[in-house]
Amino acid sequence: MYALEQKILTEGIVLSDQVLKVDAFLNHQIDPVLMQQIGKEFAARFKDTGITKIVTIEASGIAPAVMAGLELSVPVIFARKYQSLTLKDDLYRSKVFSFTKQVESTIAISNKHISSTDKVLVIDDFLANGQAALGLIDLIHQASAEIIGVGIVIEKSFQPGRDLLLEKGYRVESLARVASLENGTVTFVKE
Ligand code: 5GP
């Protein structure tokens, strides 16, 4: 997606060979116009698949997921990373090892919002080792719902997440595919 790649090139900050910071438009400040374009792109890629729900993870998956939900006219559920007081019982839970924080945390969604008849699109901001996406997929499986695919805003294609998901048979649609962050420079996969 050209507009997203240009935004990454102009406003992304390469923190290391492994980590890209996009606090200027996705992870802290949010660019709503770009998010709307991202929502339209996800909707176009997954149109005619019968999606009934989108599942993402707090906090940075919410903006792109809501925009995709708006375009597809379906509800968006975000998995919570802790068990809050109002989200105690009747939970589907999974453990996720965080790439950026290097700690394991429990993610959870209420079983009230997802059922076996749902066809679910998983959306997240980044794909690195695939642990967040696999955790979300685990929650959806616990509900016996169908997984239509995984939509990613920024995939780091030099890390194993994409291949892991493809090997397990999931469709992966990434709007920007980063080939390398070496020498402080972002390069994209040529498609
Ligand atoms: P994974 O679970 O695929 O290893 O990592 C994906 C999760 O880690 C995303 O939800 C995202 O929050 C975070 N993440 C992974 N790589 C990056 C990165 O380069 N930059 C930022 N800002 N977040 C990342």
TrEMBL record:
* Protein family according to the UniProt entry: Belongs to the purine/pyrimidine phosphoribosyltransferase family. Xpt subfamily.
Q: What is the name of this protein?
A: Xanthine phosphoribosyltransferase
User: What reaction does this enzyme carry out catalytically?
Assistant: XMP + diphosphate = xanthine + 5-phospho-alpha-D-ribose 1-diphosphate
Q: Name one GO cellular component term.
A: cytoplasm
Molecular function GO labels: xanthine phosphoribosyltransferase activity
List of residues binding xanthine = 20, 27, 156
Location in the cell reads: Cytoplasm
